[in-house]
């Protein structure tokens, strides 16, 4: 007979075993490649709230130094590809997000480092096919270098325009014709990788967005409509056909609302779930104050 000290203790019933809890891996350190505007600032603030480590690399000529808001830890010119990659690696970044306004570079005068020279043929090949293909080439370069590329909405999901009215006002019965016409125009633009927006009033196309960007397009519309007293028409923004969602989604902010008001428009329509809204609460409040609608179109 075995001694008491040698007796085997049966395992505890399965119902008494401690549950195995999966601990999620922390998000990798994020490199924010910052252009102009408020979006990089908001992404940095979101990382702070989430406790996510981040590093901000400002692009010379596009980003503006805002040290109190985290812009930027280091700086590089857009042609200094090797420096950009080296700074991101030295900071320990494993993921990157490209955010903010960046002017299309003049490739004839662009100053390049050695890495920039090596990747230039790929970038030029994409640029010849349009801005979206240019951005896809840049995304591929970062992925080839081992970085995960994230979209701004993946870092801060409250950026996306929801379906329906953002503020108090919705699309009125008199705007269906303008919206239908704008959809035709913007979808045609997207198929040839030209722009993401158009302004239509009383079914007349007042402007289409190209290299100038939304703010300048709206300023041009304000000049065209000088003297008009009644609000009419709308700005429509949609992603391009085959859009690389991680970069350059259509974006609206308070400045967009104010520009639409100066242009005498009745409101703004964007693709729900595919349009970035920089400071959703402020955009809704300013639209209500100015008497404009901001509507997310479910497609």
From TrEMBL:
Residues 173-295 form the LpxI C-terminal domain. This is DUF1009 domain-containing protein. It comes from the Bacteria. Pfam families: LpxI_C (PF06230), LpxI_N (PF17930). It comes from Zavarzinia compransoris. Residues 29-159 form the LpxI N-terminal domain. InterPro entries: LpxI, LpxI_C, LpxI_C_sf, LpxI_N.
